[in-house]
Amino acid sequence: MKSKYFAAVCIVAIIGASAAVRSQIASGNGYALEKAVVASGGGVSSNGGFTIEGTAGQSVTRQSSGTGFILDHGFWQFDLAPTAAMVSISGRVRTVDGAGLRNAVVALTDGSGVTRIARTSSFGYYRFDDVEAGQTVILNVRSKLFQFAPRVVSVTDNVTELDLLPVGDNLRR
Q1: Were both Cys, which of 32, 118, 123, 130 would link to 65 (CB 3.0–4.6 Å)?
Q2: Rounded to an integer, what distance in angstroms lies between the CA atom of residue 12 and that of residue 17?
């Protein structure tokens, strides 16, 4: 308990010392700061003797005039790129008469050219998980018995019951 209290006191002391070191006393003529944003990461005012550094793109001051000013430490805002949600694509590969086609190979090629493979179950079902939403993918089916046309799918959410049907008749007839 004492160590947690001591650590908290040390943190508060460091933050207070940091703020005291960064601010300087201005004397002489008055000046006014109004919503200053230091875009280049620091600079010197034209009517005073203080420097604001390490604040690239951050709003750190409020309006003030006279001999005193208020300096807000602000906060660092990280511009994180949005991440795409991961979704799944699933369905069934069927024969010309509608039955499930087992052991067919389903290939999913994403917008980056990466191809993933799934083999159908004994009832013809396939599934791809962790597909990035917001892209267009191509599904191809390889089978010894049937030919399939490539299927282009725009993925915005989970895709279920995407049945893949052959074109033409059975190849072994």
Answers
A1: 32
A2: 9
